[in-house]
Design a protein that fits this description.
Elements lengths: L1 E5 L4 H12 L3 E8 L6 H12 L4 E6 L37 H16 L3 E3 L15 H14 L1 H5 L5 E3 L7 H10 L24 H13 L11
Helix pairs in contact: 1-6, 6-7
C-alpha cells in the first residue's frame, strides 16, 4: 500500500512517518521549501526520510513569503517565552495562512498520481500552538473535499483517507510513540528560529512544547538548545 506522508523534519511529522511505516505502508515523503525562516528543517526531513527508508522523498518549492503574514515567512520576530505557561491562548503570529490546506492539496495530487488512498499528516490538537488547520474538523472537511475533487475519487478508483495518528496525543505521548516506532530524535528539528549554526533557540513556542514533551515523557532530548 502506498501512502503520501507530509514530512517537515520535526518531531511530529517524523513520528507520523514512523507510524505509517510500522503500519506497513510504502511511504512517499513530501516536504516543502516554502520560504520558511527555519529552512534547516529540510535537512532534518532528508535525514528522517532516509532513516525510515521512504520509497521517495520530494521537496516541493513554493513561495509563501509572497504573502507573508507570519513570523515564519515574513520579517516579523518569532515570539519568545520563558516557559510554556507564558504561551498565549490565541492563534500566534507563527501561524502560516493556509499552510496545511496547501500542503494537503499537494499531497492529494501526488496521491492521485500514485493511485494511493492514504495521506499521513502529523497534526496535533492538544499540545500545539493553536493553529486552526490542525483541528480534526478541518481534516475531516478536507478529506470530504478531496474525494470530490479528484478523478480517482469521482471514478471510485480510490477513496482518500487522511490519517492523523497524533491528533489526540499530547507532546509527551508523541515522544513515547516516536520512541516506539523507531524515531531517531537526534535527526529531527523543531525550532522556529535557529541560530546560524542550526542550533535550536530553546524559547520559541515549538522549542518549549518539545522540551515539555520530552521532560514529561522521561526521555532525553538529544538536541542542543541555545537556551536549555
Amino acid at each position: 500500500m502506498n501512502a503520501v506522508c507530509l514530512l517537515s523534519g520535526g518531531l511530529d511529522s517524523a513520528t507520523c512517518l514512523g507510524v505509517a511505516r510500522c503500519e506497513g505502508f510504502d511511504c512517499y515523503a513530501l516536504s516543502f521549501d516554502y520560504g520558511q525562516r527555519h529552512r534547516v528543517e529540510l535537512e532534518a526531513a532528508d535525514r528522517v526520510a532516509r532513516h525510515f527508508a521512504a520509497r521517495k522523498h520530494l521537496t516541493a518549492r513554493i513561495d509563501l513569503r509572497a504573502f507573508g503574514g507570519s513570523a515564519l515567512t515574513a520579517d516579523i520576530d518569532v515570539p519568545k517565552h520563558d516557559s510554556v505557561d507564558d504561551l498565549g491562548g490565541g492563534i500566534p503570529i507563527t501561524y502560516v495562512p493556509a499552510r496545511n490546506t496547501i500542503f494537503l492539496s499537494y499531497a492529494m495530487a501526488w496521491a492521485e498520481v500514485l493511485q494511493a488512498s492514504d495521506i499521513f499528516i502529523g497534526v496535533n490538537a492538544i499540545d500545539y500552538s493553536g493553529y486552526p488547520d490542525c483541528r480534526p474538523e478541518f481534516i475531516a472537511a478536507f478529506e470530504t473535499m478531496a474525494n470530490l475533487a479528484t478523478k480517482t475519487g469521482v471514478e471510485g478508483t480510490t477513496h482518500l483517507r487522511i490519517h492523523t495518528p497524533l491528533a489526540k496525543l499530547d507532546k509527551a505521548g508523541i515522544v513515547k510513540l516516536g520512541a516506539e516506532v523507531g524515531v531517531d530524535f537526534s535527526q529531527t528539528h523543531s525550532c522556529y528560529d535557529p541560530d546560524p549554526d542550526g542550533r535550536s533557540c530553546g524559547n520559541c513556542d515549538s522549542c518549549l512544547l518539545r522540551k515539555k514533551g520530552f521532560r514529561e515523557a522521561g526521555v532525553a532530548d538529544p538536541l542542543i538548545y541555545v537556551i536549555p
